[in-house]
Amino acid sequence: MNLSDFREDYRRGDLDRAALNASPFTQFEQWFREAIGASSQSRWRKIGIALYHLWSAIRNHRPADMNAMTLATVDADGKPSTRTVLLKSVDARGFIFFTNYDSRKGRELARNPHAALTFFWSALERQVCVAGTVTKLPVTESEAYFKSRPRGSQIGAWASNQSEIVQNRGILENKWRELEQKFSNEVPLPPNWGGFILNPERIEFWQGRPSRLHDRFCYYRQSDGSWKIERLSP
Ligand SMILES: Cc1cc2nc3c(=O)[nH]c(=O)nc-3n(C[C@H](O)[C@H](O)[C@H](O)COP(=O)(O)O)c2cc1C
Predict the structure, then answer these.
(1) What are 109-152's pLDDT values in tens digits?
(2) Is 128 helix (H, G, I), strand (E, B) or coil?
(3) pLDDT 10s digit of each residue in the chain, 234 long?
(4) 17-232 to CATH, choices 2.30.110.10, 3.40.50.970, 3.40.30.10, 3.30.2350.10
(5) Which among 90, 98, 142, 174 is least surrounded, fewest beta carbons within 10 Å?
(6) 169, 212, 216, 221: which is the annotated catalytic residue?
(7) Does the C-beta of 154 come closer than 6 Å to ligand 1?
(8) Which secondary structure element, helix H or strand E, spans residue 106, and what is its range?
(9) Does the model's pTM come out above 0.90?
(10) Mutate to test the pocket of ligand 1, among 74, 79, 84 (most ligand atoms within 8 A of CB)
(11) In degrees rounded to 5, what are phi and psi of residue 181?
């Protein structure tokens, strides 16, 4: 497969130092709202996003989950792994996602809490890259989120030894049915399931531009908690 002619020229927007919020969290929220079409910098961009959603609907093409992000972790030998997880909230502590603590990512984060996240919002030709350290979310907060999940997913969390080898799908489905009967009322939080908070040390905002002269601004957390913003070469 040769993809050498498979390329886009990015021209849907630009990013100015003056337009950046002093807080990368506020900046992230603004970009996220724009990615889901909830707000927009300009009328033209809003129309562009509306047309993109219409085109996706006509083609019966479900737009990507805008809160989906690639999470990178490393194992004991420094070898990286990535996978997609869903961002479930952002607050002053950082970026929060949920998973099985005994999964590959859970085990790698327990050993080495350094991780990175990437969002790619193709309709806006934007990328956000986050790097920092991860801690577990307090169990009361994991419990509150677990309770809000559909019952099927709650049972799924008990049924799956995430990342372990399973001989066939039937084993999983039988286990799910057994647990469905066992937890006839409320499904408790599995002891090995919950949230992680990635507390960022740096957050980079990338806007695609023509001729690969993209705009990149990176926020670096300073020792006093403030953020220093630098433009990076594309
Ligand atoms: C769109 C999408 C969203 C996902 N969200 C999550 C999630 O929030 N938490 C999770 O544990 N796995 C999620 N997964 C599955 C993971 O990508 C991965 O298969 C799983 O967590 C096991 O990863 P690991 O073996 O590297 O630990 C998602 C996958 C996709 C494609």
Answers:
(1) 999 999 999 999 999 999 999 999 999 999 999 999 999 999 99
(2) strand
(3) 999 999 889 999 999 999 999 999 999 999 999 999 866 656 776 777 677 777 777 777 666 799 999 999 999 999 999 999 999 999 999 999 999 999 999 999 999 999 999 999 999 999 999 999 999 999 999 999 999 999 999 999 999 999 999 999 999 999 999 999 999 999 999 999 999 999 999 999 999 999 999 999 999 999 999 999 999 999
(4) 2.30.110.10
(5) 174
(6) 212
(7) no
(8) helix 104-111
(9) yes
(10) 84
(11) -75, -40
Q: Which contacts qualify for 184-191: CB closer than 8 Å, 24 or more apart? A: 186/147, 187/146, 187/151, 187/154, 187/155, 187/158, 189/139, 189/142, 189/143, 189/146, 189/147, 190/100, 190/157, 190/158
Give the three-class secondary structure for 87: coil
Report how far ligand 1's centroid is from the alpha carbon of 19 (Å): 34
Ligand 1 pocket check: which of 82, 86, 137 to mutate, most ligand atoms within 8 Å of Cβ?
86
